[in-house]
Design goal:
2 copies of one chain form a homodimer. In chain A, about 45% of the residues lie in helices and about 15% in strands. By secondary structure, the first copy, chain A, is of the alpha/beta class. Chain A has 3 domains: about 45 residues, 434 Repressor (Amino-terminal Domain) (Orthogonal Bundle); about 130 residues, Rossmann fold; about 130 residues, Response regulator (Rossmann fold, 3-Layer(aba) Sandwich), CATH 3.40.50.2300. The structure holds a DNA duplex.
Chain lengths: ~350, ~350
DNA sequence: CTGAAAGCGCTTACAG
DNA sequence: CTGAAAGCGCTTACAG
């Protein structure tokens, strides 16, 4: 019972072909016809049926946003949200809709293939996944274009939007070195994720370039969760570090919690730099110095690249690597703002 | 070039009708035919085209998840994420996909109508919105079913999944009363949202039932943001409350921040109860006593009700109101766990 | 500039 | 139990 193209044709007195042209803003229609049809469309509140349109045109104007389970659980930070916002925003601007696929542990295998092949979606954006995620295999056999957010060694030729995690970790560590810290520890991100590995790499590189050797006792393994930041800090404490580069703000929360319990002061006794710049970073006490990762912008770019690839299939795959930005606050002890804040 | 029904028909030697029946698990097909067709489907890795299916059947098996802009920005808490997870989970179980619509300030009006009427989506779930949101008007004229997460006075007959905010605020406040607190203040949620209003109501009701009169100097207006919790607490301090019911955990973070700055101890000097039970509530120092709102479950239920309504349009609209649950931790001073934790 | 017709990949009575 | 045929609401050559 919704209004169809045919209804518009009938009421306006033009053929379906002409109506279709007007709807799609194609040239080669008389002003008179365009006017009349536009009026009728307005008047009858007509909205084209996207399923029919997609079937006929062979393109649905839908983007699939794939969020692997692991990611959505680990990042209880606004990662997911900001990414969705970015993807959604750009997609809407270009008249695309977005379909969401959050992986379910059990159905994963079956369900992802269905999502990739049900013809509803013209291309995909995949939020950073674990290395070895079964989704990778499914992706390898899709004929449809996709863009990864966060690079994936198993898919070296894919289009990617990422931030330069090596450079970011390098800059964070170097900032600590420049402010005079000597024993710089780190709590790492998940070893199962590319970003985790890259952030360790940047940390080590910065130390080496500064002429220091990497001390493995100063490296605590984390997995991006708050809890791993908490335990990681306790693991490091006996080594008496005077600074810690923590591979995510979320873990920094945990580390703060540990430091409070033992009464160690930030930044006086120990300087902290995080990674991500989640909203709460600014409200921690002391406020957290961190590397800002432009997640929303990464979502925008991923959508842009993907839609371009959908519209022009011959486009080469693209890799866009953004630089994270150092946001200096109080926790590193180098800010003008930095008073001497004691944690308890 | 993807495999079609016709391909399966040809290879298997049966007609499209029979193949269609097998695909859809309909009865009245010989075992022999079913077997053969299933094999071919498997072998050719066939996935039905959902657009074609939807067009023919008049149902797309898609759910639209609408997240108003305001909500996605205010709740930088995992609200959005957990809700999506719940909706997504239940939808997938029932063979539905979910389309995401995050409102964009500019395009809102135009874009929402398109989303509601493009024929891609059989029904909608709307995450709690502001009162007076333009989406409400659009919703009033949809022929398609929808379910609200969070009730909406302007849509009194709609299906709703909500938690009982009045009861929750009541229980939170009463808990403080029972533990002996006398001057109980509150920092309210957004006045523009039903939940905000209901939580004030529950707070007031609890005081009255306890024989106390409501003192407006003990009510600070918040809007669910961390910052409003921070300023709200400063506003309350001169009134010397011995307890505060804070209408969201996010605001409780802000309130903690304020209390640290002035050196007031929780729970010794002041008891705090929050609302939501976001993941970080457990990791605050002291850990936050709060009312747990089962957001993910609300997402599950919303999807369940909606899909049922899509499949059986004659179903009456349903209202499911869940009870939030008191989670006692340290900040209220009544837990066995509660040591005497001093904030600084 | 406009229209008649075929076709996108399915489902669904209808006949047998 | 199986198949031929119409139809879902569009787009897109093709002809004029």
């Amino acid at each position: 019972m919704p209004v169809t193209l045919e209804d518009i044709a009938e009421v306006s007195g033009y053929s379906r072909s002409t109506v279709s042209r007007v709807i799609n803003g194609e040239p080669g229609v008389s002003h008179r016809a365009r006017q009349k049809i536009t009026d009728v469309v307005e008047q009858l509140n007509y909205h084209p049926n996207q399923a029919a349109r997609g079937l006929a045109a062979g393109q649905m104007n839908n983007i699939g946003l794939i969020i692997p389970e692991t990611v959505s659980f680990i990042f209880n930070d606004p990662y997911f949200q900001f990414l969705s916002l970015g993807v959604s925003q750009t997609s809407n601007e270009q008249d695309f809709s977005v379909m969401l696929w959050l992986s379910d542990p059990d159905l994963e295998r079956k369900s992802i293939n269905k999502f990739l092949n049900n013809g509803l979606v013209d291309g995909f954006i995949i939020a950073s996944m674990l290395m070895g995620d079964p989704i990778i295999e499914a992706l390898k056999s899709t004929p449809r274009p996709f863009v990864l957010v966060g690079r994936q060694p198993a898919l070296p030729d894919a289009s990617v939007v990422d931030c330069d995690n090596v450079q970011g970790a390098y800059a964070a560590t170097q900032h600590l070195l420049k402010t005079g810290r000597k024993r710089i520890a780190t709590i790492t991100g998940s070893e199962g994720m590319q970003s985790g590995i890259n952030r360790i790499e940047g940390y080590q590189k910065a130390l080496q370039d500064w002429g220091l050797t990497v001390n493995h006792a100063l490296i605590a393994k984390g997995d991006y969760t708050e809890g791993s930041g908490y335990f990681g800090m306790f693991q490091l404490l006996p080594e008496k570090p005077d600074a810690v580069f923590i591979a995510s703000d979320n873990m920094a929360h945990g580390a703060y919690r540990a430091l409070k319990e033992v009464g160690i002061r930030v930044p006086d006794d120990i300087a902290i730099v995080g990674f991500d710049d989640i909203p709460s970073a600014d409200q921690m006490t002391p406020s957290l110095t961190t590397m800002r990762q432009p997640i929303r912008k990464m979502g925008n770019l991923a959508a842009e690249i993907l839609i371009n690839k959908i519209n022009y299939p011959d486009t080469d795959s693209q890799r866009i690597i953004l630089n994270p930005e150092l946001v200096v606050r109080q926790s590193c002890g180098s800010s003008a703002l930095a008073g001497s804040i004691t944690l308890r």
